[in-house]
Design a protein that fits this description.
Largest sheet: 7 strands, mixed
Number of helices: 2
Structural class: alpha+beta
Strand content: 25-35%
Order of helices and strands: HEEHEEEEE
Radius of gyration: 30 Å
Shape: globular
Helix content: 10-25%
Mean pLDDT: 82
Length: 151
């Protein structure tokens, strides 16, 4: 056998080995291109980062506690449901040691859980730290979830 024939045989064998290693079966791709809409499995309030701040004494020279808050767009405040309040309270308020936990908006209106009591939240005007300055209504936890009542 000549050197040229031997090299050709080696090349053919090598190509055969390589082609065996490459998968030839094509995966079937569904031809249905309809988008699947996945609904969130949690309240939109949980999509916002919970931030914290220091509560200072009256003279402002000593930290006496901590508050927590999220900031949402003003137009989303009216979209909040009793289920949203429950999920937010369960995750961020219940069992916490914050002085208060607030859902704040750019307009200054929001919802506050004073004393981090998860069963009651007050909607109204808030100061820059999320503390309640004027009450407009109350979210109260009951047997059937949270319900809202205007003042």
């Amino acid at each position: 056998m000549t050197k040229k024939k031997r090299n050709i045989i080696i090349a053919v064998v090598a190509l055969g080995i390589i082609s065996c290693a490459i998968p030839t079966k094509k995966e079937e791709v569904p031809n249905d291109t309809t988008a699947i809409t996945v609904e969130a499995d949690h309240s939109f309030l949980l999509d916002y980062e919970l931030k914290t701040g220091d509560v200072k004494n009256g003279t402002g020279d000593a930290v006496i506690g901590e508050y927590a808050y999220i900031v949402i767009p003003t137009e989303k405040l009216d979209d909040i449901t009793g289920e949203d309040i429950k999920e937010f309270a369960d995750k961020n308020v219940a069992g916490s040691s914050y002085n208060w936990v607030s859902i704040m908006t750019e307009s200054g209106e929001g919802i506050t859980f004073s004393g981090s009591i998860a069963s009651v939240a007050t909607r109204g005007m808030l100061d820059e730290s999320g503390a309640l300055t004027e009450s407009k209504g109350t979210w109260i936890s009951g047997e059937n979830g949270y319900t809202y009542k205007d003042n």
